[in-house]
């Protein structure tokens, strides 16, 4: 117990002597781990969006119209029998085992949906219901099985084309994953800077206290007694920085994602501060491990005991 109190007392003394360097370590650790926390939050959000969007992934079977191309619809506009055949396949046929639910969208409904999404378009006034294709909008039990359903209906009579949102979603998620990667790269560079700064701080502290450590060696102090305060100094600065990063991560999750973005984009379910509590212990652990490693290696190299 006396040894621990002594090392803590020496650590506080060293912290007072190196306030500027310790503050630098805290700030660099704070910034770097904030990037790590932001990247983790972003990846958590991407995973949640992926799950939500794939649950709502629709396969759209667009039926032939009078204006469809001859190559896509050689028999002309879809007939009643063809439409019923497609619906029967969805309910009882080969596609039924993959279909969770479906809905039919008439030309009038398609026009209404088009006008709602293109109110300011100059083309909106010239579009008529006959220009819009009828369609079946299909939700699948397993969204990953969309290629099977696409193949089943692609060559069916009366079908002009089969489309899904997979390509669009893949593009969105690739962009978001790219942003996560950029944040991780920046965080890695900043963490390297933090480790180097911890090592520099410990080296300067050891140099400034070389007379004291020499006396301690002469009186028979153990290696752990001499090296301990230097390691504690690095760990203290890094952990304080990590706690600040935890606070920043919580604020990003609570206010930016949980409140502001959820109000701006109501159609997407955003993560909130509860998800940040999973990330916080990881940030503290990263800071502690890196600080212990950097401090111990620096002390072993520059503080001969």
Automatic annotation (TrEMBL):
It is found in: Cell membrane. The lineage of its organism: Bacteria, Bacillati, Actinomycetota, Actinomycetes, Micrococcales. Its main location: membrane. It comes from Nesterenkonia cremea. Residues 57-162 form the FtsX extracellular domain. Forms a membrane-associated complex with FtsE. GO terms for cellular component: plasma membrane. Residues 185-303 form the ABC3 transporter permease C-terminal domain. Part of the ABC transporter FtsEX involved in cellular division. This is Cell division protein FtsX. The keyword Methyltransferase does not apply. Coiled coil: none annotated. Keywords: Cell cycle, Cell division, Cell membrane, Membrane, Transmembrane, Transmembrane helix. It is a multi-pass membrane protein. InterPro entries: ABC3_permease_C (IPR003838), FtsX (IPR004513), FtsX_actino (IPR047929), FtsX_ECD (IPR040690). Belongs to the ABC-4 integral membrane protein family. FtsX subfamily. It comes from the Bacteria. One of its GO terms (biological process) is cell division. The chain crosses the membrane at residues 21-42, 175-202, 230-257, 277-299.
């Amino acid at each position: 117990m006396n040894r621990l109190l002594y090392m803590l007392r020496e650590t506080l003394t060293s912290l007072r002597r190196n306030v500027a360097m310790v503050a630098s370590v805290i700030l660099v650790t704070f910034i770097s781990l904030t990037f790590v926390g932001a990247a983790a939050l972003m990846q958590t959000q991407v995973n949640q969006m992926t799950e939500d969007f794939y649950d709502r992934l629709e396969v759209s079977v667009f039926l032939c119209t009078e204006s469809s191309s001859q190559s896509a619809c050689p028999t002309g506009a879809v007939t009643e029998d063809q439409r019923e055949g497609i619906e029967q396949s969805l309910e009882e046929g080969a596609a039924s085992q993959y279909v969770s639910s479906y809905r039919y969208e008439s030309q009038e409904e398609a026009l209404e949906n088009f006008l709602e999404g293109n109110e300011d378009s100059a083309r909106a006034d010239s579009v008529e219901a006959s220009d819009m294709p009828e369609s079946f909008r299909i939700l699948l039990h397993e969204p990953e099985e969309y290629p099977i359903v696409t193949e089943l209906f692609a060559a069916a009579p009366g079908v002009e084309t089969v489309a899904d949102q997979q390509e669009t979603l893949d593009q969105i998620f690739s962009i978001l994953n790219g942003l996560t990667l950029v944040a991780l790269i920046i965080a890695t560079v900043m963490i390297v800077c933090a480790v180097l700064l911890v090592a520099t701080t410990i080296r300067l502290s050891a140099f400034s206290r070389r007379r004291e450590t020499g006396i301690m060696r002469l009186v028979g102090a153990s290696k752990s007694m001499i090296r301990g305060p230097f390691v504690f100094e690095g760990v203290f600065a890094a952990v304080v920085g990590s706690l600040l990063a935890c606070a920043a991560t919580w604020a990003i999750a609570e206010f930016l994602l949980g409140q502001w973005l959820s109000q701006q984009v109501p159609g997407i379910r955003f993560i909130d501060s509860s998800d940040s509590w999973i990330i916080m212990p990881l940030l503290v652990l990263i800071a502690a491990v890196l600080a212990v490693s950097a401090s111990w290696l620096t002390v072993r190299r520059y503080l001969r005991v």
